[in-house]
Every structure is written in C-alpha cells, then in structure tokens.
Fold:
Amino acid sequence: MKRMLLTLPERAIVRKDLRGVWHTKMVRVTVILVPLLLCFALPAFYLAIAWLAPEDQLATGDFVPFLPNGGEGMTARQMMVTLISQVLGPMFFLMIPLMVSTASAACSFVGEREHSTMETLLLAPVPLRRIFRAKVAACVLLALAAELVSLLAFSLVMAAGSLLFSSPFYFNPAWAVLVFLLAPAVTLFGVTFMVLVSGRSRSSMEAMQTSGYLVLPVILLFAGQFSGLFTLGPLLLLLVFAAVAAADAVLLSAASRAFTPEKLLKG
Amino acid sequence: MQAVLAQELSKEFSGVRALDSLTLSLPEGSVFGFLGPNGAGKTTTVKLLTGLLAPTGGRCAVLGLDPREQAERVHALCGVMTESARLYPQLSGLENLEFFGELCGMTRAAARARGGELLRRLGLGEAGKRAAGEYSTGMAQRLSLARALLARPRVLFLDEPTSGLDPESAQAVNALIGEQAGQEGVTVFLCTHQLRYAEDLCGCYGILDHGALLAQGDLAGLAKAAGRGSFAAFRLAQGETLPGCEGAGGWWRRPLACPEEMPALVRGAVAAGCSVYEARIETPTLEDVYFSFIGREEGGALL
Structure:
C-alpha cells in the first residue's frame, strides 16, 4: 500500500488550517507583502539606484570591506549588486520564513483558542500528536511556499542585475546553505516558538507581536558583519544552521509535550 | 458492557474540588439525564469522560475504553456536544461537517452527504452554505449537534444542547436527540436544565450539586429517596368534602401507597355521596424530585 507522508485526517487539518490562515487578513498581508517588499521591491530599488545613479556618485568605498576579496576587480555598480545579493539579500530572505511561519502559527494555534474551536478539534478521533503534526505542517508548508516565491522573485531581480552589470549570478554555496538548510530550520523554529508562547497569548495579534522578538537575532546576525568581526560564509552559516536545528529539536519536543488538552483548553 | 463507568471519579482545579468521588454505571442503550445547577460539575464530568481532562482521582471508562489512554478510540465511538466546543467561523456549516467527517475517517463525499442530511433534519439545509460565523446562537447549537451525530456515535454526550435556543430550534434539537435515544444500543448522556424535557426523554437520572452526586436512579426510585410519594386527587362538586383528604384549589388529596389503592378510593368517594368530577393519581414530577434534593442540599426546607 502506498505510504503517505500525512494521513487523510492530517491532510484535512492542513487544508483547513491553510484556509483559515489565508482567511486572516493580517497573515495574508504578511504572506504577500513581506516577500514582495523584501525580496523584490527593495532589491529592485537598490538595483535601480545602481543603474540610474552616475557611477562616480555611488559611495561604494564604505562597504568595500564587506565584499568578497574586498571588491577587487569590480566596478561600483557590480559592488552594489554584490552588496545586495550577498549582504542585504540573505538577511531579507531569512526574515520571510520567520515572519510567515510565526504569523501562520499564531493564527493556527492561538486562533483555535480564540475561536473556541480547539476543544472541537480535540474531540475528533485523531491522536493528539497527529493533530500537532498536521498543524505544524500547515504552517511550515505556507512558510516554505513564501520562501520559494521569494527566492524566485529575488532571483529575477538578481538575474536582471547580472545582465545589466555583467556581474556573476548571485547563487553560491552560502545561498545554498541559506535556502536549503537555514531557512527551513528557521521556519520550524518560528512555528515551535509560537506554539510554546501561544498558551500565554490571548489573541493571535498578541502572539504575532511577540514574534517580533525573533526577527531581532536575524538582523543582529547579518548586521554584525558590518562590525567587521565576521563574514557570513557557507561555513559560518552551516554552524548557525546547526545551532538553529538543535534549538528546533528542543523546541519541537517541548511544544509537542505542551500540546495536551489541559494546557490547550486552559483559560 | 457498561457504556459509561465512573468509579470514585474526582477532579480538582487549583485546590477546588469540582467533582467529588462520582460513581456511576450506565449500561448500553441508557438514556441518562445528568441534572444539576450551574457549576455543579456536569461539564467537568463530560470532559473527564471524553478525555479532555485528566482526573485527580478515581477512574472512568466509556465502552470499556480509558478516555485518557485511548482518547481517539473513545472519540470515534462518541459524539460530544458541549457549549464550549465551537465550529470554524470561516467555514460554511456544510464545510465544517465535511471537515469533521474527514477527521472521523469518512470520505469527503460521504461526509458531505451525511452532513447535508443532518443539516436538513435540523432545519439548516439552506444555511449550510453560509459561513458558520454568521450563524445565530440557535443555528450554531444545531450545527454542533449535527457535528456530534456525524459519525453515528454509540454514546452521545450532550451538555445543555438546548441552552439559549428559541422554542423552534429547541424542538428540532430535542426531536433529533429523541430519535437517537430511541435507537437500539445508543447511549445518551444528557446534561440539561430542561427538567420536563429530561423527564420525557430519559429513563434514569443523576442529580449533581457542588460536585457530589446526590442521587441516582429512575424517577420512582428518586421520588422514594426524596420522600416524595404519590397522591390520590379528586375534584368534587363545590362545597363537598372528602373525609381523610386535604383540600386545596378545588381538589382533595391524600397520600397513595400504591396505584392499586386508587379504585377502592374512587368507589369510597362515590359511596360517600360525593360527586366526583375527576379522579387522578398525582405522581411526583422530575422537577419536584430535583428541587427536593437541591433544596435539601442548599439547607432549605424540603419542598
């Protein structure tokens, strides 16, 4: 018999959750606007500046230390493209799975409490761990879909940059670690973190506000490069991934243990 | 097999005892009325029996299954309707039933067919396409009942199913519950304030107050335990009296030990020259019995 990743009831929960999440305006706005802004509009804006501004007026000297090989052999415009693709782009890109996963988890987990539907769900003949798995899967799926769309949009902008300024295409080993390892790990982190704080939030809006704290470490990680202490290459990103994955394992186990009728129906 | 079993079942919330050593045993096919004022512990009992709460003492079983250890198997056999279990506001009534039908292992088509049938039976056929968030309280209650009945449960837990309903909605809900209660092997555990309706529907009762089961049994047994006997009552012509009876409101009454006494009492009244317009046996109603126990518990005079 064909073995499915998710059982039929789990798939029903995933479908219902995706629909519920999409039905919430705040999450819909987050899922559409954040990727559009961070992975399309902002990079395209910087690219437009690089294209339109006179080359001698581009203040590229300030960020030469953060460019690979100190930007040796690059024109000012190529430096600008590299800065967008290798320094700012990864930071923007990583914020997307984090923001989408926390927003959808807030809606999925806290929303059930808010609408008093959690009790009804728990009365269904589906094991608790499967309900938990399906709800986590729905949030992860949505975040990964947003990540994919963001990647395509960002690639489009960067391909335009490569063509316009004859610079190499942006995707490199660091980006591979970011896209295939770190972003999924961060997605799971966002969901499990939100499940754990969901018990303390009275509304999904309140939960979403709490998730704002999670964006801070991402900004600090990438902005930290400007201090000159480190450069986020593939090895360092792998280390960050290992740390986030370990945190995921701990949070997932804690969130799964906290997913009991007593805790979910409390208050 | 016992459909519902509770042995010394207790639940405490932050040191406050919500349910105190409840012992209960209901055979399959029983229609049990669980009565008590607000805060008596009825909902807590339902939540313990359906595995939503863990007991702090004692044990319970539904159809021989532990609701905590085998929650999904218990849920597969039970339909549960509580006031606090709502439906998804963004989904239509029918979509809600389709979703819960799928969770019960039905195909989407089967769930749609069964859901549609239940919605029609509950007068929600047309409203089934509207978002559940737009439903009135009565419609939402009926939709919740439809969800509880979706998988043809063997045990039906209903917590105040008609609370807040208008008479028409209450009638539709009561009719469907009555139909379930009439089905062979279906056990109904009904928590209600509607004593008259419970009396019509249920075969046995439990009276709960402050978490303690005050009495359990059929109406006759409860009446006896409450000290509420039957009366022979006669309506006579104006101005007439009947020896050995107390008169009130145009009726003359005396305690009746058993129904077989009645024919002799009627003959005696006629022989005494009374014009008997009406004669009847007045048995205590569930309401009389209920207030006897609750009044006694509250320290009030026995009604």
In short: The mean pLDDT of chain A is 87. The longest helix of chain A spans residues 76-114. The CA atoms of residues 160 and 243 of chain A lie 34 Å apart.
